């Protein structure tokens, strides 16, 4: 039976900033994305308001996932707050590994969290992590290169158009790649991208009896299309490129198109960091006319491990970092284009924010992702770029390594798919699914 995401939280009890008398030092594990780095730079505001100090452990995405998973499953107690996402939160909440966030203050206004985000971060209607930012994925492209190629980007393009446009924009002599995409191993790196892409080709991870589906034509079509397009128009070494590597390439003017997290829009349009800031356009992630687009749904969120000795101070930090006031703080310091997107309904009702060029496309992308019905054929799992079962992270990490070996030229598509089929079925049988 397919699981569905829980409902949005109702009214909450009060936990005011003043409720913790003694100053604490809390330790937070987070990912090395730009929004998280920005948050660290504003932490003095939190300390000034509460007296609490913060120690940061900032890690690359794959390493973060490994560290926090090991720590929480072994009750290591290294962190008071963990940065996790929509995959981990419902599973860990169900396991009793996270502190419920059902007593946040009325001022925090939990009902303002976008339903898509609150649902994905809840278990049986109880919120277990608060979204720092929410995202889908979309196309970011160079308007100048698209015009030079004599093409016009549709608002909702097909994969066929994207491949043709990538080839037309590629200029190897000037180090311009028509398209930059994730090939890096890791279930949340290249694994997330190829899974979301595969949905639009009609692929799925499992049939309704939890049998692996890598021996089907849609998966073969997905991988062959991806490898062909990246060989024609992608950067050298794309097998090791993840979010941060492709962000750097795009900001340096070395990518005609980049399909990735909507949150990247503020970085590629920031003239302080991006050499192409004034010539970036946006479009929905591609489809193949089968009824499913290639956009995912995700939130980087803050959660408290059960057993933390500093629960009250940790809740104060979560309220501060995911609040409406924090959004205003970032806007005052760095402009509305740089506030954390995709988490609160009120942000998309704010006329100041809706003037930001990528605001509407971000919201449209988030609202068009359906984690309960992400595949063309019926599937037994919830999730767009993942299957929300505890075994997925381990299986998908192994499968993504096989795919990255294809991208690096170390094996064929058929070899990788055969290995993926065996890896997945063996793991599912061992876990008792069949």
From TrEMBL:
Pfam families: SBP_bac_1. It is found in: Periplasm. GO terms for cellular component: periplasmic space. The keyword Transmembrane helix does not apply. Residues 1-18 form the signal peptide. Gene3D superfamilies: Periplasmic binding protein-like II. Its main location: periplasm. It comes from the Bacteria. InterPro entries: Bact_solute-bd_prot1 (IPR050490), SBP (IPR006059). Keywords: Signal. Belongs to the bacterial solute-binding protein 1 family. This is Sorbitol/mannitol transport system substrate-binding protein. It comes from Donghicola tyrosinivorans. The lineage of its organism: Bacteria, Pseudomonadati, Pseudomonadota, Alphaproteobacteria, Rhodobacterales.
């Amino acid at each position: 039976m397919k699981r569905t995401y829980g409902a949005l939280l109702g009214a909450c009890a009060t936990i005011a900033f003043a409720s913790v008398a003694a100053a604490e030092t809390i330790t937070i594990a987070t990912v090395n994305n730009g929004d998280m780095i920005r948050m660290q730079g504003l932490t003095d505001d939190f300390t000034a308001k509460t007296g609490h100090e913060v120690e940061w452990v900032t890690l690359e995405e794959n390493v973060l996932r490994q560290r926090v998973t090991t720590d929480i499953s072994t009750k290591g107690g290294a962190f008071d707050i963990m940065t996790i996402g929509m995959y981990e939160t419902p599973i860990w909440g169900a396991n009793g590994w996270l502190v419920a966030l059902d007593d946040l203050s009325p001022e925090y206004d939990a009902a303002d969290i976008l339903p898509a985000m609150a649902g994905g971060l809840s278990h049986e209607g109880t919120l277990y992590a608060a979204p720092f930012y929410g995202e889908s994925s979309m196309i970011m492209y160079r308007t100048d290169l698209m015009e030079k190629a004599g093409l016009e980007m549709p608002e909702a393009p097909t994969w066929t158009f994207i491949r043709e446009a990538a080839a037309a924009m590629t200029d190897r002599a000037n180090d311009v790649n028509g398209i930059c995409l994730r090939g890096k191993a890791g279930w949340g790196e290249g694994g997330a991208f190829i899974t979301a892409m595969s949905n639009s080709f009609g692929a799925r991870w499992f049939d309704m009896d939890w049998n692996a589906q890598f021996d089907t034509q849609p998966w073969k079509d997905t991988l062959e299309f991806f490898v062909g397009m990246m060989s024609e128009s992608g950067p050298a070494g794309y097998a090791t490129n993840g979010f941060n590597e492709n962000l750097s390439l795009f900001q340096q003017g070395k990518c005609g198109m980049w399909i990735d997290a909507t949150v990247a829009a503020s970085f590629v349009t920031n003239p302080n960091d991006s050499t192409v800031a004034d010539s970036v356009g946006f479009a929905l992630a591609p489809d193949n006319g089968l009824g499913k687009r290639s956009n995912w749904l995700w939130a980087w969120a803050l959660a408290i491990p059960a057993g933390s000795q500093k629960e009250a101070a940790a809740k104060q930090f979560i309220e501060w970092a995911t609040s409406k006031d924090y959004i205003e703080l970032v806007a005052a310091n760095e402009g509305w284009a740089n506030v954390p997107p995709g988490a609160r309904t009120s942000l998309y009702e704010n006329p100041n924010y809706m003037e930001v060029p990528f605001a509407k496309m971000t919201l449209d992308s988030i609202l068009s992702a359906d984690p309960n019905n992400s595949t063309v054929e019926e599937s037994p799992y919830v999730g767009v770029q993942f299957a929300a079962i505890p075994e997925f992270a381990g299986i998908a990490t192994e499968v993504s390594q096989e795919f990255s070996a294809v991208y690096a030229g170390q094996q064929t598509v058929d070899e990788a798919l055969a290995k993926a089929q065996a890896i997945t079925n063996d793991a599912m049988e061992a876990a008792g699914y069949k």
